[in-house]
Amino acid sequence: MAERIPMISVRDLYKSFGEHQVLTGVDLDVEEGTTCVILGGSGSGKTVLMKHIIGLLKPDRGQVFVEGEDVVPLDDLELERVRRKFGMVFQGAALFDSMTVYENVSFPLREHSKLAESEIRKRVLDKLAIVGLHDVAEKYPAELSGGMRKRVGLARAIVRDPKIVLYDEPTTGLDPITTDYVDEMILTAKEKLGVTSLVISHDVASSFKVADQIAFLSDGKIVAHAPPAQLRASTHPVVKLFLSTWFGKN
Question: Cα–Cα distance between 190 and 248 in angstroms, integer?
């Protein structure tokens, strides 16, 4: 039986900005249909790693494979093809305030497809139903709660049926109730759509709730990569210190 290729695979990835070394040999595999959280402190390089995975940055050395294809050597046109496999949920939802929810969610389809209006409407309403927002299509973002705006952001991210959804610090700055909504949203997307999810986070509680695997980034490397329960037992000093802020010193 042939070995399954990871949906995302990063090999020996290095990236510096001037004298500042950010990534110093990252290795990471994300299996199809799983949720992997890249956990680490502020400035640890989590977002830089994500930008390499979608081809927004080129590494100093190393490889990034998406479904077995190395994206590092690809030109802009080839990268556009690969990026169709991704949906992105931004930190602040990044909705257009002057557009309705329907207009926000349909925006990627109008920009990147030639679908008929009837098909666009069907897809948008289907995705809003998946995230539990079937009745807000004509509302504006300002009329929605923080958690609802996040879910609109997810509906927009999945409207083109991506294989992979990227979440950039999805719970930063949110109150506990809204954070819980966002966690449930990530779990729902995996359950209902079967997507592979990659979450950038420094939120320990959220990470332990949504992750199948947690990869801890420190000093430019993945220093631990395990299911949440196993990561909690890690003996790596940086991981232990980071987790102790949530789980306590014992």
Answer: 30
